[in-house]
Amino acid sequence: MKIAYIDCFSGISGDMFLGALVDAGVPLAHIEKELKKLKLKGYVLSEKKVVRAGLAATKVDVMLRGKGQGAKGRTWKDIRALIKDSALPEEIKVRGFSIFRSLFEAEAKVHGETIDRAHLHELGGVDCLVDIFGVLIGMSFLGIETVYASPVNVGSGTTRTSHGILPVPAPATAEILKGVPCHATGPSFELATPTGAVLVRALASVFGAMPHFMPEIIGLGAGDADPDCWPNVLRLMAGEEYRNRGDEMVTVIETNIDDMNPQVYEYVMERLFDRGALDVFLTPVIMKKSRPGILLSVLCNAEKKNELMDIIFKETTTIGIRFHDAGRVTLGREIKEVRTRYGRAKVKVSSWGDGDCRCMPEYDDCRRLAADAKVPLTDVMKEAAGAVFRSKGALKKKSGGR
Description:
Elements: E1 2-7, H1 14-23, H2 28-35, E2 43-52, E3 55-64, H3 76-84, H4 90-110, H5 126-142, E4 146-149, E5 152-153, E6 158-161, E7 164-167, H6 171-176, E8 182-183, H7 194-203, E9 206-207, E10 213-222, E11 233-241, E12 247-257, H8 264-274, E13 279-286, E14 292-300, H9 305-315, E15 322-329, E16 332-340, E17 343-352, E18 356-361, H10 363-373, H11 377-399
Parallel strand pairs: 1-4, 4-9, 5-8
Antiparallel strand pairs: 1-11, 2-3, 6-7, 10-11, 12-14, 12-15, 13-14, 16-17, 17-18
């Protein structure tokens, strides 16, 4: 799987994202060629190498010319028609449509307007269209399948807009980044723009630490500002998913509970498993004032974290949850159905090395067979495990193996 990690340590804007893609190897000529399918005129794209606090980066600028100069904000109707009439690939059109709708909804909400009456002002110009569709074209060129992103540094202070002086993050940026991890570090100015915010919100499936992957290309895109001792760049890293004999990253969710009816735990565990938890387990603990309690632990893929935490908050009495990322190694496994003297049963077979394996008969199948045959459960389980090894021996003998 091709993975990209967007490092927003100095915020994110449309031109920074576009610059990072070009710096990572996406030809600007390719972006220009594909953008012609948008039937958008009045601009010229340029790229140049710059240095930001000692780091070399690429700065991509959208220069307006002719009728494009001083272009006023477009309405949702304008943008919708432009996307619909374009010759861009359908996947990019659909994603661009969704991104611009999010922008208009945010602008409409913060200014107390309807989506049809809202104008994007500085966002609605040619440069915004070029930035957003240029980024989508660049990500497609790199073949990115999954996007991760760091928490977004939004900056601080104030920024000047067509509405006057506004706080940072700008109201539209703050609206777009609802539910996204954010922080304010470094120089006092706007680091995350609405265009950058809506792009990272739309493209990233997970926000947090760098995923487990092997970076192959790295691109740095520069912003306009160049403060002293602060690299105002966006870093994009792309590469292949990395797995070594089942190595993977998972999220561990935990909470301590000491005031809930124990009968509820079984229901909570079933709901968590149904919604994609990899594992759920309970551990008895002693809490403050020597009260006995339960540590509820959940293992899941990162993209399931928020959904599973919602279930825990809704279905238990907890008022706080903690989580962290952890690595784990799992053996290859498969479920085989074997024939025994008592009937058919499923067996989980885990393997490692050169043909080495261990077997774990499925409890429910063996219990049913033991009850029907009126024999000890352990006899059925031994028979099921033995059937797997007998079948492996027969295969080796047939193939001439030792």
